[in-house]
Prior knowledge:
Layout: H1 2-9, E1 17-18, H2 37-46, E2 49-50, E3 56-57, H3 62-80, H4 104-120, E4 131-149, E5 152-156, E6 161-171, E7 175-182, E8 185-192, E9 196-200, E10 204-207, H5 216-219, H6 224-230, E11 235-242, E12 245-253, H7 256-261, E13 268-279, E14 285-297, E15 303-320, E16 323-339, E17 344-361, H8 375-382
Parallel strand pairs: 1-10
Antiparallel strand pairs: 2-3, 4-5, 4-6, 4-17, 6-7, 7-8, 8-9, 9-10, 11-12, 12-13, 13-14, 14-15, 15-16, 16-17
InterPro entries: DUF620
Protein name: C-type mannose receptor 2
Region (Disordered): 1-33
Amino acid sequence: MGSRARWRQSWAPQPLTPLMEGPGPEMQEEGTKKESSWEVIREWFRTQKISPSGSFSSQSSFYGTIHAKTQDLRLLLGVLGCPLAPIPSAHDPSLSIHIKDTPFETSTAKYIIQQYLAATGCLKQQKDTKNMYATGMVKMICCETEISSGKNVKCLGTRSSENGCFVLWQMQPGMWSLELVVGDHKVVAGSNGKTVWRHTPWLGTHAAKGPQRPLRRIIQGLDPKSTASLFSNAQCLGENRIGTVDCFVLKVSADRAAVVERSEGPAEVIRHILYGYFCQKSGLLIYLEDSHLTRVPTQDNDTVYWETTIGSSIGDYRDVDGILIAHQGRSIATVFRFGELSMQHSRTRMEEMWTIDDVMFNVPGLSMDHFIPPADIFDNINSP
Length: 384
């Protein structure tokens, strides 16, 4: 009881607002009234100013540069810090292959996932994996933005980088906790199997809307069974190459009801699709790409679309207690903003390189109490 009380006291109650997937830097000073998430995003793009004549301007003072770098890092953490997969995992996936009355694309995908589980060693694993602990290092490269206004195109920003680290805990089914520190910023996120939440210093605590979905960082080669569960009902799109490697391509996407449930106020989620590239030779997952499209109306009767694409190369598989775990990867995220009526569009690119230092399965003493949400979400769940 005392530990729970200390946990509750460590989080100052804040207004509970929906978790926004995508860029979300806070542009206001501490203590001011928070705007909605998508107003905050629009404000971030206003810092990259375009004058009425079509010329570009930006803050060039020392303090303006420091402010811009801070906002870039917040944007980067909002996109790459703790994104979620598009659909829930099937905790007990049915991967048996039935030819009768099963579309060819689906049965082929199940066969590929069976090969993936065999390649990672999951099929011959003797004991069940109840939980997992992992630590790693990250290097995040801040934003480069290309802004176009009619005939004028300009690239802004620098490739300044920040180093960081993360600690990840997972307990089946569907419970996980992540702490990520990059520079002087810290992102904390988690799931108790029912509610997914995230906390950042500039946006406070947020609860994810829609179905409970897994953390993308977990399915990037850290937990093969979670990855297999996510692709258990995938479609096989055929073959493609990643570099010089021939791969089978599997696709999963959120259904219409799920994306509608995830919409936030005027911001409407249109689609969220995930592609997995599995090496034909080794059977391992070597590339993961997802695309998330949101439509946001503006005050001047225009409609702005935000498309966030994250592509992750996955490699350096090593044996950990009989299971092959990816220990290295690189993610490149692109946020593309365009409107139906305006000639202006912008494309922001950011990167993350990560390595895994330590992985451990079946950690003694890890219990459900380690995945209790912060006090404000906890009180909201248990209020009458």
